[in-house]
Amino acid sequence: MKLGAFSISLSVKDIHKSKAFYEKLGFDALGGDPAQNWLIMKNENCVIGLFQGMFEKNILTFNPGWNQNAENIDSFTDVRELQKQLKENGINILSEADETSEGPESLTIEDPDGNPILIDQHR
């Protein structure tokens, strides 16, 4: 199963303090807008998202159709196909992708410890 680019989406209290902290660890801004309370940062192949006030828990995030630089790739498994495979494997889908749609869509699952996993396709 090819889930796409991986990152951790962190629920932060103060996006500016978090940005400054992760810059000290060698992360650089890759995208987002701190004025809108979100920022994507990268250090080599490690990608983190900083999100202030958008969700309660940290989230494991996969982006089908993107590489680790948030660039479109030609060949990828669509989120709707991934959803079908997850269901076949007995994985409970918390929020489902609309299987009748095309393009951007997402789904959410949880691991056995309650950690949220977002599969978020942007194209």
Low-confidence stretches: none
What characteristic shape results from the CA principal axes?
globular
* Biggest sheet features: 7 strands, mixed
Percentage of residues in DSSP E strands: 35-45%
The end-to-end distance, rounded to whole angstroms, is: 19 Å
Count of DSSP H/I helices = 2
Q: Based on DSSP secondary structure assignment, what is the total number of beta strands?
A: 7
Which value, in Å, is the CA radius of gyration? Answer: 15 Å
Instruction: Report the order of strands and helices.
Output: EHEEEEHEE
Short précis:
By secondary structure, the chain is of the alpha/beta class. It contains two helices and seven strands.
Task: Explain the overall architecture.
This protein is α/β, with parallel strands linked by helices and 123 residues long. Helix content is 16%, strand content 36%. It has two helices and seven strands. It has helices at residues 15-24, 79-88; strands at 5-12, 28-33, 38-43, 46-52, 59-63, 105-110, 116-121. Strands 2-3-4-1-5-7-6 form a seven-stranded mixed sheet, covered by helices on one side. A hairpin with a 5-residue loop joins strand 6 (105-110) and strand 7.
Keywords:
alpha/beta, 123 residues, globular, 7-stranded mixed β-sheet
Give the secondary structure arrangement, pairings included.
Elements: E1 5-12, H1 15-24, E2 28-33, E3 38-43, E4 46-52, E5 59-63, H2 79-88, E6 105-110, E7 116-121
Parallel strand pairs: 1-4, 5-7
Antiparallel strand pairs: 1-5, 2-3, 3-4, 6-7
